[in-house]
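debug: dumping io for the single-chain case to check the tokenizer round-trip. Nothing else runs in this session.
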Amino acid sequence: MEIWQAIILGLIEGITEYLPVSSTGHLIVAQRLMHIGTLSETDKLAADCFAICIQGGAILAVLGLYYKHVLKMIKGVFGQDPEGLKMAIAIIVGFLPAAVLGLLLNDIIEEKLFGLWPVISAWIIGGFGILWTVSWRRKNPPRGNGRDIVKLAWQSALFIGLLQCVAMWPGTSRSLMTICGGLIVGLSVKSAVEYSFLLGVLTLSAATVKKAIWKIDGAGAAYDVWLGGSKLMWDTYGAVPLTVGIVAATVSAAFAVKWLVKYLQSHGLSVFGYYRIALGIIIGSLLLTGTLEP
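debug: decoded output
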């Protein structure tokens, strides 16, 4: 992998991770266009691991921007902040469905759904899902501007967590499902976005650790269990591309997160719905004409 390719992948990851457009879908398309991970099954496994590991940059961005929320939750866990404890419980409950189903369905998802046609389908369906949510929210406005995260009941957090599981289908977007879920249960726009970010830190951290350390079957079976995919990726690309990708993801994610919060409070989600539908049609057309390989 060339340095410029690592930069592009890092920027794509950082910009799209917290926007409701699917970072996974964008990364799959970018890898295809740059012919990364297309040489062999081992090459594909290394590329998939790289795409997961640069999520660390997006995690660092949110931890930096929302460190006060994180500290508040830590204090809550240790009995020093009641509101922080409520936030922590809401995040943990929202994470649990993905933790369970992720372990059960990961192999099936990677085998059956990590292709461009499933991604295109998810883009288009998710686009219409956004437009439906916007319409539903307009017809069913919350009291005032909506609830804060600390008032999120565990039942509502569980509902959002179940919606997050739908995003295991590449192209759906974890942010899409959690933001829309937050709006449906009555959170304010700002709180829905922030809950999505904070839930993402836990979810993405778990996914990154699992992909980087968990034993890889098949082509990666010869690698040590505790190193797993990270050794395969390390041997294939080396340290520099990974470092560059993480840095690019961190910087771009920080800008994307700050922009998204401001944008949604005044403009709403609709533009992302139209973007997803248009992108799905464009990429689908490229596949049908043979311009892009599936």
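debug: round-trip ok. Residues 3-288 form one domain.
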